[in-house]
Amino acid sequence: MVMSESRLIGRLTQYGLLIRLDKPIGSLLLLWPTLWALWIAGQGRPDALNVAVFLAGVFVMRSAGCVINDYADRDLDPHVERTRGRPLAAGLIGPVEALVVFAVLCLCGLALVLLLNRLTVMLAFIGVALTAVYPFVKRYSHLPQFFLGVAFSWGIPMAYAAQTGHVPGLAWVLVLANLCWAVAYDTMYAMADREDDLKVGVKSTAILFGRYDRFSVGVFQAVTLAILAVIARSLNLNAYYYVGWVLALGLALYQQYLIRDRGRSESFKAFLNNAWFGGAIFTGLVLAYLD
Questions:
Q1: Which domains does the chain have, with CATH numbers?
Q2: pTM (2 decimals)?
Q3: Alpha-carbon distance 95 to 75, whole Å?
Q4: What pLDDT score was predicted for residue 1?
Q5: Residue 5 has pLDDT above 80, yes or no
Q6: pLDDT of residue 2
């Protein structure tokens, strides 16, 4: 019985590592823009059910994304320093087992979204498709970061649909802002893996941009902040919002400092720092709507 319990705990531990319970950064990067949309669509008072469903849904679908990503990269990850210890890459979880976990997570996501309106459910199916396809894009294109940006922005139209019953033009402007932000932070992520990616043949914007990588990241950061400022102006948000915006600007400059020498650990640290960037914008929104 003791051995059985030990094996069960060990299996659950591997499942936790597979869905990145130990690395919440992905959930945060998916959560922040979804919360931006909920707060704007709800004018600072989003429906409690919507908030609860999207909080749980973000965790579930990010977990599903990690599983299908590791399944797609199961033959590549053993050759990349940062990923060779992942459960699938290390042979601690089998490919079929991983697909079962992915299917279960998608069913959980479906159960959650069925609590919402029909338009949100329809958009959710597109979101699942984006999640499933993304890991394979880097095999064929140098622009997987753009595809990730679309996938990580899909919570925005879903949030608007759930809160208001439709998706206005402003939602798509917010999607554009988040797409630019995702390209910026995921390029930093790719900069950390660039040497290994070149060896195994994986494509990325870090490779595509080459020596213009830092400049390109800066451009996408600037466009993100500019669009967020335009959105705030169109909504007549007060000065409290700009406290968060200015903090986000400072964080973007700090990230530029971190990647100045394109070091592996520094680039990854800059990527992680984006959790604070998204949180700063959300804090500004909350403060503006509380006033």
A1: 2-290 (1.10.357.140)
A2: 0.93
A3: 11
A4: 42
A5: no
A6: 47
